[in-house]
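Hello forum,

I keep getting stuck at the same step: I have a sequence, I want structure tokens, and every attempt I make locally crashes halfway through. Rather than fight my setup again tonight, could one of you with a working pipeline run this one for me? It's a single chain of 228 residues.
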Amino acid sequence: MMRHDVFVSYSQPDKDLAFEVVSRVEARGISCWVAPRDIAPAADWAAEIVEAIGAARIMVLLFSASANASPQVRREVERAVHKQVAVLPFRIENVLPSDSLEYFLGTRHWLDAFPPPREPHYQRLCAHLSRFLENTPSSASVNQLRALAIDSTNAPPAVTVFGHEELQYLEAELAAYIGPIAKYLVQRTAAGVSSLDELVTRLGAEIVSGYDRRQFINACQKVAGART
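Reply #2:
Ran it on my machine without issues. Output:
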């Protein structure tokens, strides 16, 4: 996957505005990744999004009432926080985050894109991104993620020591906490471990909430018990 500076997260009703933001930011020489424009044909949507978030230096979240209610947006923000990618909420409506998003965004700096006209707000966003990118070098972990990113359109199927039913069970359990990206994470992680305990532990680490992580691990003990 090509390196990029900004991952743009938005909810579907805000798509036109998201692409307007992308055009303004890219006009300043700042590279952006935005769906569906940058998803390769026939690629796994969830896998592409996971890799794009991990490869970005900052996420711009177009925050609105629609984004506030979007499980997909919440999962993208959760992934960014988990991967230590900076998140910049750009409020396009005067709304406050729900409890689930406030957990991730409560202490972050916000930029507002109201009242109209929006152009001055776009200019302020671009200036903020330019300063951030100039003063924040890519971390070693981000560089490593970029170097190891898997091209999901060309990568061969992962070979694992686990049964199909076991992996399906883990995918279903993990998806309850992080959504459809669970399938990609289970397949990728299973290819690099040899024990079920290690697989469950690594997958559990993808869940930010400690309580949810424990619930997931406890549920997965059923698989381990059936194996022995």
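The chain has a mean pLDDT of 84. If your local run keeps crashing, start a new thread with the error log.
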